[in-house]
Specification:
Pfam families: Pirin, Pirin_C. This is Redox-sensitive bicupin YhaK (Pirin superfamily). Belongs to the pirin family. This protein has about 350 residues and is mainly beta. The chain has two domains: about 160 residues, Jelly Rolls (Sandwich); about 100 residues, Jelly Rolls (Sandwich), CATH 2.60.120. About 5% of the residues lie in helices and about 40% in strands. It is built from one helix and 25 strands. The strands form five sheets. A seven-stranded antiparallel sheet has the order 1-18-15-20-13-12-11, with no helix packed on it. Strands 3-8-5-6-23-24-25 form a seven-stranded antiparallel sheet, with no helix packed on it. A five-stranded antiparallel sheet has the order 2-9-4-7-10, with no helix packed on it. The termini are far apart.
Length: about 350
């Protein structure tokens, strides 16, 4: 019998395959060693790596484009948004607008690149006597043509503020759903209220009332059972990424390898964790933007002419220049999370009001 809820299943690659309105999704899971006093990797551990372009996962981690601190030094974007979900570890953000942030441990940064921004994303290794694990998703969300040239903007979603739903099945096993975008189910039998979703940036496709956009993570205890509700929007598309765990059942079909599972968004889908360990999923869904996509590296526009203009603008203006002393700033040894915006105001988790700063 054909499983009508599942459109297709494909293995997870690098990056993960996505559907409009999403452009890109990558999962980084790096078991970084103890850090040096400079918050980087000891030189002795860098042997055999292609420094500046290290995606090797040698010893369970990569340097990417960083050295000695792993990460991604200053690079430009135009025409889309990045949503960075940091599950473990810390990221130091710096950008061409003068903004800075240190975030992690469940925090999310939502950056609208719009007409152009340069930013760096570095992974400081603060612990000198213990490992420094880092786990994150970075998701690229397209902007419609009318918003591709809006002013850059970044928003912080602190872990403490992100709504979560906790559902307990008939056997007492728990499923927790975290909503980075999109409304979760109201409270039901065995479920705790999730709260209102946080507001996405104003020019995001996610801010459109009929976009039906959702970014959820799902964590299921061993043996847990939960039903992913049907999407509400017409034309919505949905992909369920099974990325942790041994074996799950999706709409009655057993999935034993980590996979991207495209679902018919208009149907509810029962998920069963059939293994003796935790299973985890990422859900990306939304109504397609349905416009031409022309991409050249970090620029995503609608036409080749617009791509050529983006390259010309970046060469001429550097999207505002780079106000930092080097291409890969890190923000000191204090582990406290913060975000300092271009206008100078600073915010921190669980803080009711922004705090003015002099710098």
């Amino acid at each position: 019998m054909t499983n009508t809820a599942i459109v297709n299943i494909q293995p997870l690659g690098f990056p993960w395959a996505t559907l409009d309105p999403f452009l890109f999704c990558v999962y980084h899971d790096d078991a970084y060693p103890a850090g040096t006093p400079a918050m980087g990797v000891d030189d002795a551990l860098l042997a055999g790596r292609q420094i500046g372009q290290d995606f090797s996962r040698k010893d369970g981690w990569s340097m990417y484009h960083g050295a000695p601190v792993p990460g991604f030094p200053g690079h430009p974007h135009r025409g889309f948004e990045t949503v960075t979900v940091v599950r473990q570890g810390l990221i130091d953000h710096s950008d061409s607008l003068g903004a800075a942030a240190r975030f992690g441990g469940g925090d999310v940064q939502w950056l609208t690149a719009g007409q152009g921004i340069v930013h760096s994303e570095m992974f400081p290794l603060l612990a000198q006597d213990a490992p420094n694990p880092l786990e994150l998703f970075q998701i690229w969300l397209n902007l419609p043509a009318r918003n591709k040239m809006v002013a850059p903007h970044f928003t912080m979603f602190w872990h403490e503020d992100i709504p979560r739903l906790s559902a307990i099945d008939a056997d007492g096993r728990t499923t927790e759903v975290t909503s980075i975008a999109g409304r979760l189910l109201p409270a039901e039998d065995g479920a705790s209220p999730a709260g209102e979703p946080l507001a996405p940036p104003p020019d995001s496709w996610a801010a459109q009332p009929d976009a039906d956009l959702a970014i959820w993570t799902i964590r299921m205890e061993a043996g847990a059972r939960w039903t992913l509700p049907a999407a509400t929007g017409a034309g919505t598309r949905r992909v369920l990424y099974f990325f942790k765990g041994a074996s799950v059942t999706v709409a009655g079909q057993t999935v034993q390898d980590h996979a991207a599972i495209e679902l018919r968004a208009g149907q509810p889908v029962e998920l069963v964790n059939g293994a003796n360990e935790v299973a985890e999923f990422l859900v990306l869904q939304g109504r397609p933007i349905g416009e031409p996509v022309v991409q050249y590296g970090p620029f995503v526009m609608n036409t080749q002419t617009e791509i050529a203009q983006a390259m010309q603008d970046y060469r001429r203006t550097q999207f505002g220049g780079w106000p930092w002393p080097d291409a890969a700033p890190v923000h000191g040894r204090d582990p406290a999370r913060f975000a300092r915006h271009p206008d100078g105001h600073e915010e921190r988790p669980a803080q009711a009001a922004a705090v003015p700063t002099a710098g």
